Amino acid sequence: MRHAIGDSWLNRAMKELIFLKLGGSLITDKTQPYTPKLDIIEDAALQIATALQAQPDLRLVIGHGSGSFGHVAASEYRTRDGFLPAPVQLPRQERDATEEGYWKGFAEVWYQASALNRFVMKALHKVNLPAVALPPSASVIASDGKVSIWETTPISMALGVGLVPVIYGDVTFDEVRGGTILSTEDLFSHLARALNPDRILLAGLESAVWEDFPARTRKVEVITPQTIGRVAESLAKAAGADVTGGMESKVAQMLDLVQQNSLLKIQIFSGMEPGNILRALTGETLGTWITA
């Protein structure tokens, strides 16, 4: 039996593997705390199901941001920064209250991120996708804000039997900070090194990376390590109110990946445009490419 499963993994190893992120700004209203865009989530799920029906051999890992769910509590409790012990000169009771407050916030971010994930999973289930959520908070240990330990075998096994693993921006325990938040890009960056996807698709609100953000009149077709300097200033302006860094951090992390794997292609595009997720999954060029 073990040999048969191994053969299945081997056969699938030659089939295209895609990581798809549904951005938090795409699937939630960031101006309204704890507000999912249910129509967008359901439409994205339908497009994903359609793509997989058209390409049954496609292997897919879905990730999603936390948007107005996780970011509200994360900002209030500074969860990504980690737990910083209170000064020793403070009375013991105040120090304990500071620590208790941080971990209360940690739990609140976990709760809100998982609440949004349930909306996503419900939409995927509604279109009969065999998706399984694998929360990072239960399997990832970070070290100073980066993935340190992650047993990714469940994700590999899920892909091997034709399931669609779903991960999302989540809290994790951290060996240095005590606790932190890892974005979907943080998670994809580590997972890409383990699973070697062919493409990473980042679906958000922006239809591309722009040379002149926020005017948005000059689209950047391709970003490479050699050309990043031309758009660095614009990326900094597009960072926005995002506890995990926004567009600037996203592009920097993806550039690191393509420098390590020259065959990897990464696409940033709008998931708001009707049919764009389906088009991207089936290979159409949209938005901005990040390549080596």
Write the layout of secondary structure elements.
Layout: H1 2-12, E1 17-22, H2 24-27, H3 38-54, E2 59-64, H4 67-77, H5 92-126, E3 131-133, E4 140-143, E5 146-150, H6 153-160, E6 164-168, E7 170-174, E8 178-182, H7 184-195, E9 199-204, E10 209-210, E11 219-220, E12 222-223, H8 232-237, H9 246-260, E13 265-270, H10 276-281, E14 288-290
- CATH class, anyone? Alpha Beta
Q: Nearest-angstrom radius of gyration?
A: 19 Å
Spatial strand sequence of the major β-sheet: 3-6-2-1-9-13-14-12
CATH superfamily: Acetylglutamate kinase-like
**And the CATH topology?**
Carbamate kinase
Q: Which class of secondary structure composition applies to the elements?
A: alpha/beta
Mean pLDDT: 89
DSSP summary, beta strand count:
14
Q: How is the biggest beta sheet arranged?
A: 8 strands, mixed
H/I helix tally: 10
Q: Whole-Å distance between the termini?
A: 41 Å
Strand content: 15-25%
CATH architecture assignment: 3-Layer(aba) Sandwich
How many structural domains can be distinguished in the coordinates?
1
Helical fraction: 40-55%
Instruction: Using the alpha-carbon principal axes, give the shape.
Output: globular
**Element-by-element helix/strand order:** HEHHEHHEEEHEEEHEEEEHHEHE
- Oligomeric state, counting identical vs distinct chains: single chain
